[in-house]
Design goal:
mainly alpha; 3 helices; about 55% helix
């Protein structure tokens, strides 16, 4: 069974996008671009930052 973890190897800030990319087995650049595009929409920019911070706190690190 697959589990979602923060990425230790493919991270730029906290490893959230890298971890999501590893979980779904896609390129992390696609996840990062999607996150930026969704965060740029009016009113969603702050929401994207808050969602990233929440994901960083909630998603566990690999032990």
């Amino acid at each position: 069974m697959k589990k979602l973890f923060l990425s230790d190897f493919d991270k730029k800030i906290g490893g959230v996008c890298g971890g999501i990319a590893e979980y779904f087995n896609v390129d992390s650049t696609i996840v990062r671009l999607a996150w930026v595009v969704l965060s740029v929409f009016p009113g969603a920019g702050l929401g994207g930052v808050i969602a990233y911070l929440i994901a960083y706190v909630v998603i566990p690190r690999r032990s």
